[in-house]
């Protein structure tokens, strides 16, 4: 059966004319719980007076056959009272049913279903202990989880969660907090836990936490500049220094054209061009190899086979062409001009000395 069919079947069983006390259909409400396919349940809301009757109809083997009692609990609805919910299951037909009813907050009592489902005894004891809901005809509503001297019902929303007010948490929240002399962080109270200074056995006895005074800016002495070590100051990142604009750097004065070399102000001195170098002209000096040259006279003739006239010598390379000397030109710089004048004067002095030596040799030969 589908959840919708289970709900319709429950309404039909409770409103049938052959029952002992037929129920008005307007007092019943059916719905389907969530949970998705295979997990949804049929839900029927009944008045508190029909609580036991509805569960008996659900257990009837000829009707729905919900023979297994799953659980029972309650929900605190504050001013609207308490909602009691029971879930039963059919082990043969494989369908479930949620039966709900709402009782007032002043006198929350319903009829016990222990005679229908024996497993409901434990759940009714717990609901009575946690919410304070009474179950008529229950054989033994004694405390289940709490000590007998406990006062109040912990699952009611007005109940104060004071366990951490009466006794501090024995464990450590962070590693090392339980050790002596270690500073602990401020305790955090969960929702519903009051301040121990406002409620509980330590009411009015807990002193407020001491906050260390904050030192004013003028109370801190200035540190002398000489006390700081050399390596104490962090290095300034390179990106923090603004770049200097190009136009702010002064231009370097240019040198006069006559004092500036061809390679620039920072480079080495340029070598004079071939036209700038003076040519030394010594017309009276004998050419090597010419008649009268002592080197030509003392040099022995080369030995070897005689090459026929008109045949090129395979061993001796041909003479290199005589270099063409360009005419002297004006010096490029004053320094070059001064060097040229000095070279010319030295050449003239050498020629004059050679002429005097030649005259002296001639005179001695005549003598």
Describe what this molecule looks like in 3D.
This protein has six helices and seven strands. It has helices spanning 3-14, 51-59, 120-131, 163-166, 294-298, 334-366, and strands at 29-32, 42-45, 68-76, 82-89, 96-103, 109-111, 134-136. The strands form two sheets. The chain has a five-stranded mixed β-sheet with strand order 1-2-5-4-3, covered by helices on one side. Strands 6-7 form a two-stranded parallel ribbon. A hairpin with a 5-residue loop joins strand 3 (68-76) and strand 4 (82-89). The longest helix is centred in the last third of the chain and has 33 residues, at 334-366. The chain is elongated. The relative contact order is 0.05. The model is unreliable at 261-267 (pLDDT under 50).
What would you say about this model in short?
By secondary structure, the chain is α/β, with parallel strands linked by helices. It has 6 helices and 7 strands. It has helices at about 5-15, 50-60, 120-130, 165, 295-300, 335-365; strands at about 30, 40-45, 70-75, 80-90, 95-105, 110, 135.
Biggest β-sheet strands, sense, barrel: 5 strands, mixed
User: For the largest beta sheet, what order do the strands appear in spatially?
Assistant: 1-2-5-4-3
Helix content: 10-25%
Q: Please state the overall shape, judged from the principal axes of the Cα atoms.
A: elongated
Order of helices and strands: HEEHEEEEHEHHH
- Give the structural class: alpha/beta
Rounded mean pLDDT is: 74
Tell how many strands the DSSP assignment holds.
Answer: 7
